[in-house]
Inverse folding.
């Protein structure tokens, strides 16, 4: 296909300006993914987009550049000052790239068909890639909250369940798992929906026990699987890469298997006798010490843990615990939560 300089130098000038805009915006996205997510696939794709555009940035476009005569130079929109989050920066720059590519595509179609074609292809690919990058950011945020959480509350059916969860969240809990085996699916859905909304207000993670379908329906932060539940890889395919997947483990082999499966965190237990898991024999605190050297994943010791036996676990090096009855059955959920958090800090 023949490439010819535009007869009107103003067309060459605006194509040059938008080529620069597109490449600058791509670099903003690329650097975020490179330094914050280490996602080689996304980084290489963005880098490839930049180089493809650069390859078509011919000298006759650059020679038309007239920065000194650009009356729009230095102008900015007030909304640019309102970009406080990474998400806002990514969305703004993705839109900048897409708009620039559209302008180039329109004005180069007759004189530079290869450039118009590559801009069209990149623009359409970027629509999907933008969502992928935003999902990476969301996953990173969830992982950060997970890594900072040392107390994980697992719900159990109570008439005042909502009030207990609110008190625990106000006291400082940042991770809640909805676990309910007693009610019908419809009732579970509405219970979990209300708790999910509450957790969101407190910027706390909301995880669904066992039920991938319920997690999807509520757009929860993830799911926690047992050894007999749906395989991890299937849950990942259904939930996507931005959601957290935890798994209950009861031995070193199960811990290592869960890590290989790509789980984000583990539950290790039951450490002590537990009313929640009456059919499982306690593995004891010593296994936790071995688990510390067996996995790099964050894991929560779980099973019969309360403020009375917590120090025994801390002496083994435990940094994270999951509890249910210690808070759900407490006469003062707020005080008990603060007490345990204080002991864990």
């Amino acid at each position: 296909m023949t490439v010819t300089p535009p007869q009107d130098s103003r067309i060459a000038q605006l194509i040059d300006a938008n080529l620069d805009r597109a490449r600058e915006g791509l670099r903003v996205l690329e650097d975020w993914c490179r330094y914050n997510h280490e996602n080689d696939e996304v980084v290489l794709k963005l880098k490839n987009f930049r180089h493809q555009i650069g390859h078509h940035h011919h000298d006759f476009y650059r020679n038309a550049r007239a920065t000194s005569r650009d009356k729009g130079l230095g102008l900015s929109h007030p909304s640019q000052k309102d970009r406080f989050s990474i998400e806002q920066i990514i969305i703004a720059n993705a839109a900048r790239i897409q708009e620039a590519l559209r302008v180039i595509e329109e004005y180069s179609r007759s004189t530079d068909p290869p450039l118009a074609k590559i801009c069209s292809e990149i623009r359409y690919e970027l629509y999907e890639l933008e969502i992928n990058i935003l999902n990476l950011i969301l996953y990173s945020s969830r992982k950060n909250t997970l890594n900072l959480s040392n107390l994980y509350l697992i719900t159990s059916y109570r008439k005042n369940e909502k009030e207990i969860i609110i008190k625990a969240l106000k006291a400082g809990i940042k991770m809640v798992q909805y676990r309910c085996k007693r009610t019908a699916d419809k009732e579970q859905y509405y219970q979990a929906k209300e708790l999910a909304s509450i957790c969101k207000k407190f910027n706390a993670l909301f995880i669904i026990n066992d039920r991938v379908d319920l997690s999807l329906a509520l757009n929860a932060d993830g799911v926690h699987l047992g050894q007999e539940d749906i395989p991890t890889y299937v849950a990942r395919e259904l939930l996507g890469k931005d959601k957290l997947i935890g798994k209950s483990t009861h031995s070193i082999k199960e811990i290592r298997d869960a890590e290989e499966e790509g789980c984000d965190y583990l539950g290790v237990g039951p450490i002590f006798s537990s009313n929640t898991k009456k059919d499982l024999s306690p593995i004891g605190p010593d296994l936790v010490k071995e688990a510390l050297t067996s996995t790099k994943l964050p894991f929560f010791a779980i099973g019969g843990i309360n403020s009375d036996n917590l120090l025994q676990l801390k002496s083994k090096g435990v940094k994270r615990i999951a509890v249910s009855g210690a808070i759900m059955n407490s006469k003062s959920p707020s005080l008990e939560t603060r007490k345990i958090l204080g002991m864990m800090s």
In short: The chain is about 55% helix and 10% strand.
